Amino acid sequence: METKQKFSIPLPHEVIRNQISQALHEFSVLQLHLLKPENTSSIEVLILMKDPKEAETLRARKWIAKAAAAQINIHIAYHHKAEFQLKCGNPFYQYYADPSAMVWMNEEVGVPLKTYPTKKAFKKKLNIFKEKFYHDHDLLMTEANKFHAGQMYAAAFQSYLTVFEHHVEYLENLYMGCNFFDRNLHTRLTQLIRYIPEIQRVFVMKNEHAFYLISKMEESVSEAEGGGESDMYSELYGAVKSAEAQLYKMVADRFSKFSHIIRFKKSSPMMNHPVKDSESKGPLFEKVLKTVITKLAPEEIYLFQTKELSSPNPEEKQCIYYLLVIGDAIGNSAIEDIQHSVSDTSNGRTNVVILGHSRIYLQNHLNKHQQLMKRIITHENKVYQSTDFHPAIHWQDSVWASDWEFNMQYRTVKDFVEQYFNLRDHLQHDNHCGLVQLFSNSIMRLLRIYINAAFPYYMPHYLNAYSIWKLCVYADPSLEKTEFLFEKLSTAFYKLIDYYIKYSDSRGKSSAEELIIMDEILNVLTKKLDHLVKEKNLTAQTT
Fold it and tell me: What highest taxon heads this organism's lineage (predicted)?
């Protein structure tokens, strides 16, 4: 070891090397340890300090977090805490404070932090440390299961929150070497993500500072304390159990990993999880995927349907890709821009239907979306992910169907169609004003409510007519037989619908032949919807 004046830190990253050098001069650092685990490009650094307040100040420096992006994980601890944790058997310090990994020690330090010299001496302490975790976990889970069996959901959620805090305490000890009991569960989990990116897979983020599932548990407990309905979130119990199991496994896996790397003085390889290969989908799809990624910067993309349209000429064969795109700020204008781009670059041979939702939107609307989304969001359908650590949706154990809303939508579309035919039967002096606009609105309402009935009770955003129709065909392929009517009315049928559901100065005059076709289209689609409602035994009554 060398003094501060002579020491040069053996790190390849110059900026971080200089930051650590500055920290050695600015703070009362006692020891500096550096480890290079085998079979990985990452570097582990332990900065052991004398004062806990200085340790907290250094830990809050922005460059510490930025170092992780450069695959340099910096752990900051203070001496007395490290000594206590070693006596308790925490393997974190046995590994990171290994004397053979020490590259610098303050000249004022007489004796470095003492770790256990032999496996036998350390194993006894480690077993006590591990057994305390498992023993306390079993006691807490017994209590939580007892409350759940008695349908005391708020009490069960309170117990699970305690279990979560228990797991986080051990994850902090095993990954950071210290605890943050003065901070809430949301903050503590967020801090751990830097060291355990897999946590992002466990919880959906409600916002930048909070997790959806934990917030719902806290709301349930709070409502019960106020005398309200405490079981309103009981449908999320399965998601809570799954999250607990994953956190539990993270602790168990960390124990297992330490037992190997301390024993053999080497790290097991960190596995990379590449994005699922989509090349097997073909070059056309590769272009579509690249366009969507470039324009939307999504978190995940799922290909849930590929529809090929046959043609006598193989070179004119068309293909439609159905995509669920999960990400933020996915607006209709961006989706339509992608559709135009895909169609233009393929000379009309390729089209795409996109459902775009943010993750928190899906989580907050599972009462409407769960049936369809569970069908789409599968490992087999995933074709892109921006990172390995996006959380899975917290699926509900049960979904409360919004029958009343469907009834209202169903009655409304019937009223629109009826109003169209009332106006149609009472045209005066060839006055068509408002008729084609009413027809277009009736079409869009029929198609949207058809999707709503086919996948109770999913309602897409206000997509264009082409996308809405293709979603209906996805739900019921037999609807394709109706498309010849669209072409009879107009070769640009979908554009016509889109045009007339918006304000325009056009009178919208139609010929007698076109009016007959419009009548037939509405009648056919209305009958299709009525049949579906009856077949699905939905609460709405056909008339």
Answer: Bacteria
